[in-house]
Structure formats: C-alpha cells, structure tokens
Amino acid sequence: MGAGHDHGHSLADAGQRHRGRLWAAVALLAGFLLVEAVVAILSGSLALLSDAGHMFTDVLGIGMALAAMTAAAKARGGDRHTFGLYRLEVLAALANALLLTGVAVYVLIEAVRRLGEPHEVATGPMLVVAIGGLLVNLAAFALLRSGAKESINVRGAYLEVLGDLFSSVGVIVAALIISATGWWYADPLVAVAVAVLIVPRTWKLGMAALRILVQAAPAHLDVTAVRARLAEVPGVCDVHDLHVWTLTSGMDVASAHLRLEPAAEATLVLSTAREALHHDFHIDHATLQLEPQTPTPCGPSSW
C-alpha cells in the first residue's frame, strides 16, 4: 500500500478548513433567497424569479457539500466503509447538476410562454433586489473561491455562485431597460439567458461526477504513461492488471501487478514504484502486488 491513509486524512482536513466558509456562504445566500423570492413574486419578474431559483440551488448545493464533508470526516474507513464516505461528495455534485438542469428547463418553458404574453414588471423593487443579489453573490464567491480547487462539490457550488453573479447583472440590465423604455420583453429574454448560462456548467459538473462514479481513468492522467513508468522501475519486467481511477476530488487511486525479474529485490522495487507514482503522477494511494520471482524468462503475462 502507498500513503493513502495519510492522504485520506489530508482530504478530511481540507474539508474541515472549508466548512466554515461554506457555512458562511450558505447563511448569506439562504437569507437573501427569501427576500428575492418574495420580491420576484410581488414584482412579477421572471428574470428575478429565475435568479431566486438559481440561488436556491446554490443553497441546496452548498448544503449537500457540507453534508458530504461531514459524513466523510466521520467515516474515515472501517470494516464497512474501507475507503470512507468520500463518494458522497461526488453523488452530491451529481444531484446538484440535475437540480440546476431542472431549474433551467422550467425557466425556459416559462420564458417562452411569457414571450407570447409579456407581463408588466415592477422595476423598482426588481432593481433594488437584483443589486442586493449581486453583492451577496460577490461575498459568497469570495468565500468559496479557494476551496473550488480542492473539491468537486465546492467547485460545483462555486460555479453556481459564479453563474448567479452573471444572472444578477442580467436582472439589473433588464430592470434598467424596462424602466427606461417599457420594453417588457427584456424580462423573459434575460430569464432565457440565465437558463442558457446554467446548462454548460451543469453539463461539465455532471460529466465530471459521472466520470468518477464509473471509475474511469482521470482525464489528466495517461494510463499508458503510468504503465510505461512502472515498467521502467529496476527489477520489473512486466506490468499488468493496471487500474487507475479517482475516489474523490484530489484523490487518484491505482492498483497494479508487477512481475519481477529473478534477481529483483522486492522491498526496493515496491518503494521505487511508490515513489514513481507519487512524483510523476501525484498518486499517493496505490495497491501494488509483486508477482513471485521465477527462474523462467521474463516476459508479458498471459492475463
């Protein structure tokens, strides 16, 4: 085994570091969400309502991130969960992507309906709340930015807040246009723009989560290169049954069978192979099985 145990602890420690920021972000967004939803209904603004729906998924997404981090921190292995509960983070990210897709579809359907029958909108409250939403999203964005590089779930929440920033700007623009020209179509058109903005980000997040769940090789790793590097380790004559996958954000895992040359020293081969995986591919959790030394000529295995 490699240094997977220590790496698992480092991931849980990273979750602990980001938990306070997540709580602060969700408190900000949840508090303002209530205000935005009420004003959206009273003002009749679909753009503001879509922004409120987007903010709701932000709150729900961050809540799921917090739940996943808490569960992972409480279950670092054991007889039933030998890898801990790190996959909960990935499942939460996938659920978050599905929720965002649902919001986008609803807004698009409602916007098409309103394009046929434009609704009057109370632009004063709409503008004030949209500006408030922009400020709240800026604060949440700053809180989540650092954690987005370490966690797929924090990245999902971060991307949602980033999208909310743009949607808040769109609502502000729509309110100004309607106020200045009385062109009511600006409201559903901005709502459509917000919905379209959601889709590419949710697709990317959902695909990243699915890639982890189906245990595909990490996109940034060349499995052929990993195999070749292990084969270069002195004393190794064949590498087979190589598997590389991602357990959760920032934790790539590998397993492989290494067939040894007759004169190879097992302890040295194992330590060198571990170091190669760590140094060249940042894989710190590896299970390496050394095939028994044999007097027969060294060559590829039949399986």
Automatic annotation (TrEMBL):
GO terms for cellular component: plasma membrane. It is found in: Membrane. SUPFAM superfamilies: Cation efflux protein cytoplasmic domain-like (SSF160240), Cation efflux protein transmembrane domain-like (SSF161111). Keywords: Ion transport, Membrane, Transmembrane, Transmembrane helix, Transport. It comes from the Bacteria. Belongs to the cation diffusion facilitator (CDF) transporter (TC 2.A.4) family. SLC30A subfamily. This is Cobalt-zinc-cadmium efflux system protein. It comes from Catenuloplanes indicus. The lineage of its organism: Bacteria, Bacillati, Actinomycetota, Actinomycetes, Micromonosporales.
